[in-house]
Amino acid sequence: MQRKTLKINYLQTISWFNDSLIDWTNAGKQYFTNGQVKEIGKYSYAFKFDSSVISDCGQYAVLYKKLGTKGLLLKNGEVLREINRSYYHAEVYEYPVALVTTKNKKTYLIHCPSEYCRIEFEEVETGEIVTKSMDRNPSDFFHSRFEISPDRTTFISKGWAWHPYDFVEIFDIEECIQNPLLLDKSKISPDVDAEIRTASYINNSLILIGSPNDTEPFDHEPSDKLKNGQIVIWNIKTNTVTDIVSASFTVGAHLIAIDEKYAWDLYEYPKIVNYRTGQVEEKLEDIFTGRQVSSIIHGLDNLPKIAFNSQTKQVAISNKDRIEILAK
Predict the structure, then answer these.
(1) pLDDT score at 302
(2) pLDDT surpasses 90 at 227
(3) Does a cis peptide bond (omega within 30 degrees of 0) precede residue 164?
(4) 310 by DSSP, 3-state: which?
(5) Dist. CA 170–CA 185, nearest whole Å
(6) Does position 221 have pLDDT exceeding 70, yes or no?
(7) I need a labelling partner for 138 at 20 to 30 A (CA). Which of 82, 222, 261, 262 fits?
(8) What average pLDDT does the chain have?
């Protein structure tokens, strides 16, 4: 495991853009892995934003508060408009938001501006909600932690439903723009016997998913389905689950695929795990990465800021006066 430490003075949000980290909340302060620091924005924003996402081109960004209702959509560091989500249990679980640029070169904001369970696609430049329809009837699911596929054709929502239990839904981006009703409920679901608290794209067809160690399973009878404390590969083309293994570690909310064999696990401290065997192969116990096991984070104090670089597979972890950058 490769490790690089960057000293910082003050940081509110971090997102990767190419090989650098940007804090758009603080005048676009840009941190390079070689230690260089630049300021590429004009303004700092006087609100307690703690998270951000950046578009592939780097032109657009969203600042938001994980347990709040308020966000800012920026273009080149300047405000395009404010955004909001429903108040309903907003203080409990992570704000659902993502940016995606589709084949037609338009960039969309994916979020839930009117209801916790209703996903909308909004053109970033015009503010037009292209998925608005009187026929929408979304299922009762609290969307959270959106993740876009490497080829930008699908995205997953790692959220929850009552009572509560964590699960995952998946949507085809182009299909949903053409037919917004497809956003109301995932067309496919992994066949499992446990909650799903973490999911990560391995590639465009395969998703690594993990179940928690600390909840009651759906079914106590023996089966070949995913059980508590296990990880599995979900093929979204065939809607099948394979390669089920028991994890030798606590499965948290951040199990992030690196390649066809290895993943980061960030429960308590960084680990490189072999998800084909369920074993931990490397670890750094002196870096605290929090004890998050769900999109529900109410009551968890001092969660570090974590950003994953989908291109380089690096992880950035910010605690107090430093950023730790890790690579396999």
Answers:
(1) 83
(2) no
(3) yes
(4) coil
(5) 9
(6) no
(7) 82
(8) 95
